[in-house]
Design a protein that fits this description.
The chain contains no helices and eight strands. It has 139 residues and is mainly β. It has a domain of 89 residues. Strand 4 and strand 5 form a beta hairpin.
Length: 139
């Protein structure tokens, strides 16, 4: 696992039993006409509920009022889904990539089903374009 900056932790490890919007993370001043490529890592240790589903997305905002989706994770389900079985027993981590262009980031979760409980963490990792010789993204 990568070494995460604690400032980029969108959700600390812990159980969640209802849909919610995470606490916004302030990335500092937005870069005009620029963006930061980020890797988002969703990891879970327990998932329960009677045929339940969990949809997790990452969103961004310039002012914490208007939110735009940056990335979405594959839906988690406690029912067999053709890829994983049970509570996604063969996969405990999903990584997604997204381009963040605004000052604030948060996660949004939508949980459905009876007695749903998902114990998870969500972290962000900024990918350094300079390290691979690429130039900074500008629009």
């Amino acid at each position: 696992m990568p070494a995460y900056d604690t400032k980029l932790q969108l959700k600390a490890a812990g159980a969640q039993g209802a849909s919610t919007n995470g606490t916004p993370v302030d990335l500092g001043n937005a870069i005009p006409n620029g963006g930061q490529l980020m890797q988002f890592d969703l990891a879970w240790t327990a998932y329960a509920g009677a045929v339940s589903t969990a949809d997790i997305t990452v969103e961004e905002s310039p002012e914490q009022t208007t939110w735009r989706q940056v990335c979405t994770f594959r839906q988690l389900t406690t029912a067999p889904d053709g890829t994983f079985t049970g509570a996604n027993v063969t996969g405990k981590k999903i990584a997604r990539f997204g381009l963040v262009t605004q000052r604030y980031m948060r996660y949004r979760s939508t949980l459905g089903g009876a007695g749903v409980s998902l114990n998870f963490t969500l972290n962000a990792l900024a990918l350094d374009a300079v390290a691979i010789g690429a130039t900074r993204l500008n629009f």
